[in-house]
Amino acid sequence: MAQFLIFAPKIIRDMKNILLALVLIVSGYSVAQDAKAKGILDKVSAKIKANKTFYVEFSAAIKNAANGTSSTVTGKGWVKGEKFSATYGENTIISNGTKTWTVVKKEKTVYETAADDDDEESMNPKKLMTLWESGFTNKYDKEETLNGEKVHVINLYPKNAKTASYHTITVYIAKDDNELKKAVMKAKDGTVMTYTLTKFTSNPTVEDSKFVFDMSKYPGYKKVNG
């Protein structure tokens, strides 16, 4: 995984983890891949990239047994080309393809950055799909049943393990329709983040207004340029 945004608070890092886990499975192209795993990931990649737009809903559970912390969040996201709009609990990220705005309600702060500031730190799912093409090795683990559905279980390992904040991401992909069902990210500090995709809609109608940021909608917020 890319290094976390250095200008943002912890909540933004958590939001990025959620989005990364939801889109990472579309890129199974790194060198020396497990052949079976790569074949499955290639199918998912082709299916996702065929969409001009898509909409997702998800839930996330973040736990660390060592320090006793536990939290849950739900979210949703719309993608259209290089534009995207997503909500994570009470927080929002909007990108028009040129600029990205991260709205953190708890801090009453809006973080504004250039969309292409750093591809490795981008929240844009399309760029993240490209990023993973050279960022992982993978290994097919097993086939099992998840909520009554047959799924492939695949482990992903960061190529640059020394700088990554986690050591393994396990993805669960439906055997019948090649869709992501769940992703489990295991961080080096003992935190386990489990993300479950609850809804995926291919090519919905998404108006461009969805990706327009209006500061007047956030009275009392301060804006920080990254």
What would a concise description of this structure say?
This protein is an alpha+beta fold. Helices cover 16% and strands 44% of the residues.
Notes on the structure:
With 226 residues, the chain is an alpha+beta fold. It has a single domain, classed as outer membrane lipoprotein receptor (LolB), chain A, CATH 2.50.20. 16% of the residues lie in helices and 44% in strands. It contains three helices and twelve strands; from the N terminus they run ααββββββαββββββ. The chain has a twelve-stranded mixed β-sheet, with helices on one face. The longest helix has 15 residues.
- What name does the CATH topology carry? outer membrane lipoprotein receptor (LolB), chain A
What portion of residues is helical?
Answer: 10-25%
The CATH architecture can be named as Clam
Query: What's the main sheet like?
Result: 12 strands, mixed
Mean pLDDT: 80
Shape: globular
